[in-house]
Amino acid sequence: RFCLPLVLASLPVMATGEEIVPALQDSWGDFWLFRFFVNAAGYASIVVPGFLLIQYFKRRNYLETGRGICFPVIKSCVFGSEVKSVHQEDGSLPPRAEPTESSTARQVFKLLFCAAGLQASYLTWGVLQERVMTRTYGATETEPGEKFKDSQFLVFMNRILAFTVAGLYCALTKQPRHGAPMYKYSFASLSNILSSWCQYEALKYISFPTQVLAKASKVIPVMMMGKLVSRKSYEYWEYLTAALISVGVSMFLLSSAPNRHVSTVTTFSGIILLAGYIIFDSFTSNWQDALFAYKMSPVQMMFGVNVFSCLFTVGSLLEQGALLESVRFMSRHSEFTAHAVLLSVCSACGQLFIFYTINQFGAAVFTIIMTLRQAFAILLSCLIYGHTVTVVGGLGVAVVFMALFLRVYARSRMKKRSKKLPPGETPVQKV
């Protein structure tokens, strides 16, 4: 149902829009829509047999009749222990540990440590992401160099390191008893892979500042997914701030400079890929929110999702023969190897800083830090890669960040008000 409109919508791009970046489309196999369907076919070759196996074990009532050495593994993957938490205030994270007898100086140091860790991890990640996807490697006076084109390999690199870090953390620290069926992580994993792929691929067609602002606007589809997936309701101020973000992003995207540089032109392909990123990422967060009904820590969630992410990406890469091709590219360009490894390290460390910051200071402080990070990312990208922002575009950026800070302020007020409610009343659910 959705494939035909997408193909028809992409035809004008193939005819006109792609002339903006002719070097990207050396062959039909380099076209993003073709690669998307090839990657999806690779994931389907794993998902479909897995789905059939799960249905087979459920029809056979394997939980009651199964025996043998494979029983614990199948039980964990298909059925789980079905233990859910009855009382969980925030569906996404465990209750924040309140500091006890901690000096003000110690708390300030912790806050600075968290802020510095988040900023360093994600600002470096953003700069490297744009470098890897938009610049060439091995360029000399006589040779133009070559670009790395396989976004899926970068996703695999990020996920394999995140899987390793989360696994070591779970092994070395005490974690809650795991109760969720393992296969349920595959839904969030698949949408997470596709959102990351769209994010990397979009940088071939749009500037990094545009991508950062588009990420800020994902509040809108997250709210829509929340209504569809979790049946949530929202306050009036959430709709207001979502509308302000939409206006600000529109101002930035529609603003035009007289001598706009090629790298800052927002093509139709970039818009489609950004929309894909936002939709897939919105589903991921809402599905993970539902999974947190089981007794699990955020690191267990990180481990479970990345298990399937590694399985899907390495399977698809092997089927396409792209894994060896990417490894050969790494062997030809040591600079790319360093960038890809550092990109993965920043992504994994950033996730750990997220968990630690929210546990120590709560979601409001974390949101403020990450909102500032988005502003710094736009500024850094413009300074390093020479992107231009018009006056109207700058006003749009200001509107977006004003709306984001307004959301943080309103949410903190709502949280304080909810604490004063009688025991029988509950506040409206929020994203």
UniProtKB/TrEMBL annotation:
Gene Ontology molecular functions: 3'-phosphoadenosine 5'-phosphosulfate transmembrane transporter activity
Primary localization class, coarse: membrane
Secretion signal, residue range per the UniProt entry: 1-17
One Pfam family here: UAA
Compartments (UniProt record): Membrane
A single GO cellular-component term on record: endoplasmic reticulum membrane
Swiss-Prot/TrEMBL keywords: Membrane, Signal, Transmembrane, Transmembrane helix, Transport
Membrane topology term: Multi-pass membrane protein
Transmembrane segments: 31-54, 236-255, 261-280, 301-318, 338-356, 363-386, 392-410
UniProt keyword Plastid present: no
Superkingdom, natural source: Eukaryota
Family membership: Belongs to the nucleotide-sugar transporter family. SLC35B subfamily.
Protein name: Adenosine 3'-phospho 5'-phosphosulfate transporter 1
